[in-house]
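Re: weekly structure request thread

Next one in the queue (247 aa):
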Amino acid sequence: MIDLTGKTAIVTGGARGIGKAIVLRLAGAGADVAVSDIDLAGAEAVAAEVQAMGRKSLAMKGDVSKLAEAEALIEGTLAAWGHLDILVNNAGITRDGLLVRMEEAQWDSVIAVNLKGTFNGVKAAARVMMKQHAGKIINIASVVGVMGNAGQANYAASKAGVIGLTKSAAKELGGRNIQVNAVAPGYIETDMTKDLPQSARESFLTLIPLKRPGTAQDVADIVLFLASPLADYVTGQVLHADGGMVM
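Done, posted below.
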């Protein structure tokens, strides 16, 4: 069993879906977890669940696309607990549309949250973890960043960027005993996907050898592994949680 007792973690976009599952999975393994989200009430509800499990938790409102707010999240965690062991950059948005019809604002907002937000988190956490000579950074990418997807040029570009950022950061930070990895979910049942038409769901399932959508827990389990000592010699990797969609 993985034991993260004594470890502290931050999960961005932790109020619901994959982020919430990650928060609860890390807390279940013994970590104290700070929950960040633009939805403060949602973050507070998840933090209360963590506290009910007997772990410490903080809820903080933050827009990861702004470096100052990403830094404030790190600083708030350090003020409370004195160290930061795990950062999960999970916050993300979609603003889908065909490329030729996509508004500039749709492009900019997705790149700002998904890619710049991940950069901001990595940058702010790296300064702390370099002093500690230890840390785990886990970025949530997507199979769309590997294979592309019609109607999601902005999202695909942002997640491809996250993959490149992950590999570069892993090379820069490895000498300080900081592991940087990414998880690339495939078709996961969340609030983002539950409203898809049945035809779209069936189309996705034809691409998945395991013939079922994934769950938020499937992603959280991989994050737990990467956050644990079991992954101390794993860095710069992209682990796909996609049922075999991309091989």
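The two ends are 29 Å apart (CA to CA). Residues 104-132 form the longest helix (29 residues).
Next request, please.
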